[in-house]
Amino acid sequence: MTPVLILGNKNYSSWSLRGWLALRKAGIEFNEHPISLFTPEGDAQLTDETPAGLVPVLVDGETTVWESLAIAEYAAEHNPALWPQDAGARAWARSMAAEMHAGFAALRHALPMNCRARGRRVELDAATRQDVERIQRLWCDCRIKHGGDGPWLFGTFSVADAMYAPVASRFTTYSIDGPATVSDYVITVLADPDVSEWYAAARDETEVIEEEEVGRI
Ligand SMILES: N[C@@H](CCC(=O)N[C@@H](CS)C(=O)NCC(=O)O)C(=O)O
Questions:
Q1: Strand-strand pairing, 57-60 and 31-34
Q2: Which residue in 25, 41, 64, 78 has a CA-CA distance of 20 to 30 Å to 157?
Q3: Ligand 1 pocket test, candidate residues 55, 109, 163, 169, most atoms within 8 A of CB
Q4: In DSSP terms, which residues pair with 59 in a beta bridge?
Q5: pLDDT at 89
Q6: Residues in CB range of 19: below 8 A, 6 or more apart
Q7: β-bridge partners, 58
Q8: pLDDT digits (tens, 9 = 90+) for 107-134
Q9: Within a 10 A sphere around the Cβ of 214, how many other Cβ atoms?
Q10: The domain made up of 83-199 is a member of CATH 2.40.50.140
Q11: Whose CA is nearest to atom 15 of ligand 1?
């Protein structure tokens, strides 16, 4: 039976993008079961169909996997190339992925993912500025130390890229500048064919979640 990924609105659901992208890059075929977030029907579906009331959730036969990082790990079991081969690089990638999964609350709150939006401006508070600087430093250090010849954080695509892809999207929406290494990496993420496909689907969506629409000038 083909696995099913339960996911939220592509325009807004950053955690869904992470799980989706990891599955895509692992080469796993799956069907999508979208839930329209922050609607009465969507809330009922989250309650009925997801273990923690959140998306994404992967249902693969008898196996249910929730939490984006666990879905990415499940994808990496299918395709171990989703983690760097070198043990030291792999430890870095796991640390980066875990830091994203557990942290950067200020950035996630102040700068919601909004794939369709461009030219948004948000005055960054100190905590968000700190998150932005930490992520930019992480990306630069990682590219220098582990980037090798490829354009992704660890050269070839890894779970770390899946976890940070929505941040690249946010940096674009809110015109967050950084050094060339950061802007090059943002271009890599947004030019990726799978990410482009996600964006195209986000553009086709008609739902607007007003609380996520921040920074209009
Ligand atoms: N830690 C979870 C976070 C999932 C999450 O917060 N998902 C959001 C969408 S991006 C959600 O389901 N929100 C629905 C709600 O809060 O009602 C993960 O990594 O999957």
A1: unpaired
A2: 64
A3: 55
A4: 4, 64
A5: 98
A6: 5, 7, 56, 58, 68, 71, 72, 162
A7: 5, 65
A8: 999 999 999 999 999 999 999 999 999 9
A9: 17
A10: no
A11: 54
Structure tokens at 185: 């990496």
CB-based contact 17:165 (threshold 8 Å): yes
Domain 4-79 has CATH 3.40.30.10: yes
List b or e across 91-120, with b for residues whose CB sees 16 or more CB atoms inside 10 angstroms. Answer: ebbbebbebbbeebebbbebbbbbbebeeb
What is the chain's mean pLDDT, rounded?
A: 98
Ligand 1 pocket check: which of 5, 6, 9, 15 to mutate, most ligand atoms within 8 Å of Cβ? Answer: 15
Ligand 1 atom nearest to 37, measured from its CA: 14
Sequence spans of domains, the chain: 4-79, 83-199
